[in-house]
Amino acid sequence: MSGKLFLGLLDRFITDGSLEFQLDGESVRVGRGREGSPEAVVQVSDPRFLDRVLTYGNLALGEAYMRGDFTIAGDDVAAFVGVLLRNRLDANGRSCLSSPACWSAMPSASSTSRTSCATTT
After folding, report:
1. Strand partners, 40
2. CATH number where 49 lies
3. What is the rounded distance in angstroms from the CA atom of residue 91 to the CA atom of residue 88?
4. Would you place residue 108 in the very low, low, confident or very high pLDDT band (cuts 50, 70, 90)?
5. Residues spanned by the domain of 60
6. N or C: which end of the chain has fewer CB within 10 A?
7. CB-based contacts of 58: which residues, under 8 Å, 6+ apart?
């Protein structure tokens, strides 16, 4: 699955709330707030954008949205961005990506099992 590292980072750093990503025929729930419904459901049409966000950051996320690489169910962009901002994902993700300890804790791209993210079909 494309974007495994990105989804692993989200799962690790979203401690307040949860998001659901629908991609590659799966629904992947990230975040620690897994009871109840996710705050936003992201429907991914081009999963390559997940990897681009790791490289280029917020700008890549905005460009992917404008390009239609993903949509948010019910057009609830405020709920999606609210989860990201509340959990300070920009700052936390950037500091993690520069730390070797963080990389060793992330699922490998070749791993087929998802140890930290809940996956449903």
Report:
1. 19
2. 3.30.1050
3. 6
4. very low
5. 4-120
6. C
7. 90
Instruction: Give 13-22 contacts, CB < 8 A, sequence gap 24+.
Output: 13/87, 13/88, 13/89, 13/92, 13/93, 13/96, 14/83, 14/87, 14/89, 15/87, 16/83, 16/86, 16/87, 17/82, 17/83, 17/86, 17/87, 18/83, 19/80, 19/83
Rounded to two decimals, the pTM is 0.76
Q: Please give the structure tokens belonging to residue 26.
A: 């799966």
Extract the tokens encoding 106.
């992330």
pLDDT of residue 115: 37
Predicted confidence (pLDDT) per residue in 79-102, tens digit: 999 999 999 876 655 555 555 555
Q: In the chain, how many domains are there?
A: 1
pLDDT for position 83? 94
Q: Which residue in 48, 64, 42, 69 sits closest to 2, CA to CA? A: 48
